[in-house]
Amino acid sequence: MYYSSFTSSDNCPLAFQSSLPLPLAANTNGDPSDTPTTCILLLHGFSGSSAYFTRNAAALTSSPSHRYWVVCPDMRGHGRSGHNPSRGGYHVARLAADLRELLVHLRRQVPAAARSNLRFFPVGCSIGAAVVWTYLELFGERWRSEGGDDEGELFAGFVFVDQAPLQDRAALGLGGTWDARMAHRGCFDEASTLAAQRAWATADEGAREATHRALVSECLGYRFAPAETDKVSEGQARRDEEFFAGISAACDGVWLARLLADHTRYDHREACEAITKPLLVMAGRRSGCFSLEGMEETVRRARKRGNQDAEMMVFESGHWLFYEEPDRFNREVLGFVERCTS
């Protein structure tokens, strides 16, 4: 993977990893036919980074019949990307705008003759799914240039990983009943969100580290709901904890706390109804974040408006199922991409 970056419209540096060196070049005869026409976007979750996909990115670059371009962004405020705290930016909508600017940047890396054939497959994990839903609500599924002189297909399908379309409990029943069975298990109302914000924003180094390690216990299925069939050694468990806690520790906790409040209150249920492209929901049976019923709402909403190419599959791991069951995750993503592009 190759690290690259660009600068957003509000002068924020945004980093990403690409499986191919940029810009993508046509062959020596100037023929763009060898340029990949499918880009798989792996979008990490809250307090994560592109490093989350250490077990996935390389494996997703190719299948027996296709070669894929894989891109893993570091969202604003995460990984190697900046966040311009003096100018805000701690909103899911800003992350969605960043995604649009990333897509513009990536299209420019492709030879002009091949751009109209390029299709993206966002794989949104946790808040990454919320960013994609917000993008679709703001910008739609089709490509439109700012000048309006360029329009066409942009996405071929969507994968949403272990995220319900609403974290908060809907006390007033707006948009339909949404209670403890559906909402986030631990951050679901004003009181729980405030407690989570304090935990992430604390200046106490020990307490902050405890918050990062608690996230690991919530998101790894073998930690949240241990099973006799788990085969993770004590040493591997320690390495997993250090890996994920270290990524969280690199983030600005105060900025994350403000993003968390925005993320928790976003309601994406109606936005899911507008998705017309094929979609796949991947859910962890041992997720410490969401119930299977809550995550299935994305499929129900899409089908409500006639999208019958919407399905959910259940993994036997947790919130970070792409890390715990990488072979199956990679296989299912490639199978979905191939089905949508064949």
Features:
342 residues; alpha/beta; Rossmann fold; two-stranded antiparallel sheet; 11 helices; 10 strands; globular; AB_hydrolase_sf; hydrolase activity; AB_hydrolase_1
What report would you give on this structure?
With 342 residues, this protein is α/β, with parallel strands linked by helices. It has 2 domains: 2-185 and 267-341, 3-Layer(aba) Sandwich (Rossmann fold); 190-260, no CATH class. 37% of the residues lie in helices and 15% in strands. The chain has helices at 92-108, 127-139, 190-201, 205-219, 221-224, 234-249, 253-265, 269-273, 292-304, 321-324, 326-341; strands spanning 2-7, 13-18, 38-43, 69-73, 119-125, 142-144, 151-153, 158-161, 279-284, 310-315. The strands form 2 sheets. Strands 1-2-4-3-5-8-9-10 form an 8-stranded mixed sheet, sandwiched between helices. Strands 6-7 form a two-stranded antiparallel ribbon. Strand 1 and strand 2 (13-18) form a beta hairpin. Helix 4 (205-219) crosses helix 6. The chain is globular. InterPro entries: AB_hydrolase_1, AB_hydrolase_fold, AB_hydrolase_sf, Epox_hydrolase-like. One of its GO terms (molecular function) is hydrolase activity.
